[in-house]
Amino acid sequence: RTVLCNDPEMTLPPVNIPVDTTKLRIEKTAIRRVPGEAFHLLHNLEYLWMPYNSLASLSGITFKGLRRLQELRLDGNNLIAFPWESLAGMPQLRLLDLHNNELTSIPPDAARYVKNITYLDLSSNKLMTLPQALIATWANLQAVPYFPNDNSKIILGLQDNPWVCDCSLYEMVHFLNFQSPNIAFIEPRLKCFTPRSLAGVFFSQVELRKCQSPVVHTSVAKVKTILGSTVLLRCGTTGVPIPELSWRRADGAQLNGTVHQEISSDGMSWSILGLPVVSYLDSGEYICKAKNFLGATEAFISLIITDSESTDDPNSSAKGTWNGKASGMEAAAYNDKLVARYVITTSTVPTLGAGVGTGDSLLLPAAAQDSNPQSPQVSPTTGQQEPERMVRSVRVIGDTDQSITLAWKAPMAKNTTVFSVLYAVFGERDMRRINVEPGKTKVTLYGLLPKTKYIVCVCVKGLIPRKEQCIIFSTDEVVSAGGTQKLINVVVISVACVIAVPLTLVVCCGALKRRCKKCFVRKPKDVQESYVTFESLSPGAKAKGVEGEYLTRHTPDESNRLLSARSSVDSEAIPKIEGQPNEYFC
């Protein structure tokens, strides 16, 4: 009942094998394939051993009719795949040996057909991972062991495979590290093959993350920007493994920008789409797609291009918006950045001509946004040399609801120097120009809109202003500042009155009390005469007609008068002597 075939020149399985054969061994031959009908008549076959042949493939009907088969050994061949579904026709199969083949993967459906197998050897193949369904089947399997004396354990051989230690192997590593008591491994110390950082590391020493589908994060859903600026669209993703990010437009148009990838410290992958010098053609929907082997997800960002700097869209990016609560240095840096947008950064800009009359308008070209907005640089224009530095310290010194007074310093200016004041609603490119009379460094602008942000620049007539010659102000901020100052003045005056009035009353009462005492009590004459003396000091010659001593004694009544609360006022009423006035002191 046992048939052994080991002819090294044999290329096909033998025919006419006795139908009552229970064990068939075909070993170390040159057989490359097995015809589908080779074993159909062997209904009593229990052991089929075909090790170390040259088998490259097997058909699903090769094992048809072998319902009593208990062992199937195919080790040492060149199999790149195995017909797992054929196991359904072998209900009594307990041992499957696929050791030392070329298997690269096992389909998830294999878990349905290995539930009765208690000895499975997949070692020395080219497996990089195992399906989670197969691992779950082993973890929950309560099968009868193939070897009765093996304490009801299932034997698995998984060693010597190029395992890729990433999230796809998470379940398998967890299964090996926390294995069920009814599972035994031929070699339990499995090692990672890739990535290189984990090559040769045992499964028991690695920490892997569970696979996760990609999730897309965007900082904003809508971006509103001005024409000609540079826009950066950011898209982040999380997932295991790290998803791949890609950009495309919803309308299918070609992207007009560059993509930069980076990974933040928290493990999030970011993709930044840079759109330089945007035009109206760049408006539209942009799609960011994140993809890994578990799936893909997308996020949409709307880009709106306008010709105005201001935006009321609450969903727009507020990264560059100053909320007015920053410190002085931060606010100054913010205003300096915005002013720089109005200043021409090229060195070949034509000089502006002089305007005719008051209210001339001119159009300043939009300046390219500097990559480092904290320190925008401005190159001097042709013919614009020393005179451009004449204007300094531009500031607002007075205001009403619809006007402001502007002042500046020009220490190097001559009396014939004419200045031009350029102003506009912030965000607009059309600037109004007012020519100031020669020699003046102050002007009042009328007709302003309340609660509106303006930019104003002062420069020598015929030249282009530099960024340090421009300021940004808001009429609502100016008015509120004036109202605040008035309120402060009222409060200070009120506090001063509350404090000063009681003190004045106390002093007056004290003086009145002393005056009353003097009226009722007469002091000795010598005391009264010696109480006060006045000395007249005159550094020059004595006045004409004045003779006698400079040190003079006064009567008691005069002394009392000089000591009263009004003495300092009355002393000023004494007629002055001609010539240089005298000085009196008490």
From TrEMBL:
Residues 214-306 form the Ig-like domain. GO terms for biological process: visual perception. Keywords: Cell projection, Disulfide bond, Endoplasmic reticulum, Glycoprotein, Immunoglobulin domain, Leucine-rich repeat, Membrane, Repeat, Sensory transduction, Signal, Transmembrane, Transmembrane helix, Vision. It comes from the Eukaryota. The chain crosses the membrane at residues 487-512. It is found in: Cell projection, Dendrite; Endomembrane system; Endoplasmic reticulum membrane. Residues 390-478 form the Fibronectin type-III domain. GO terms for cellular component: dendrite; endoplasmic reticulum membrane. Residues 369-385 have a biased composition (Polar residues). InterPro entries: Cys-rich_flank_reg_C (IPR000483), FN3_dom (IPR003961), FN3_sf (IPR036116), Ig-like_dom (IPR007110), Ig-like_dom_sf (IPR036179), Ig-like_fold (IPR013783), Ig_I-set (IPR013098), Ig_sub (IPR003599). It is a single-pass type I membrane protein; Single-pass membrane protein. Its main location: other. Residues 366-389 are annotated as: Disordered. Photoreceptor synaptic protein essential for normal vision. Involved in synapse formation in cone photoreceptor cells. This is Leucine-rich repeat, immunoglobulin-like domain and transmembrane domain-containing protein 1. It comes from Donacobius atricapilla.
